[in-house]
Amino acid sequence: MPLNIIVIDDSPMQLLISSKLIQQNKRLNLLGAFTNPFLGLKAVNIMDVDIVLLDVEMPEIDGFSLKKMFKKPVEVIMNSTRPIFELQAYSHGAVDFMNKPLSSKRLDSSVSKVMQGITFFKDQAKVCPALAS
Description:
21% strand, five-stranded parallel sheet
């Protein structure tokens, strides 16, 4: 079953590139792509989203501040043209950080990280009740 993903990036060109890469990935289902971060935030908070591909630098609000406004837990893959933000992305809870321009191989690697985390937590949910009994 594909994971639902939303892209939030102020650059229309980057949004187009990201959307094409996502549509080519059989493990992903693109729910929406937003140049307006606040419309993207609204979508994250009301839709059934598994992953957000989030730009770090946007004019209205940075990706780190926007992530704090998510009302439910979602996996976040942050991206930027400046690799200097990588450590900060991880410290803000991103599952991965991608340098722009994005590539299908790198996106697939990020999706694998998300899926490994989902599998780990599902396995933990099965193990913990068994240990308690």
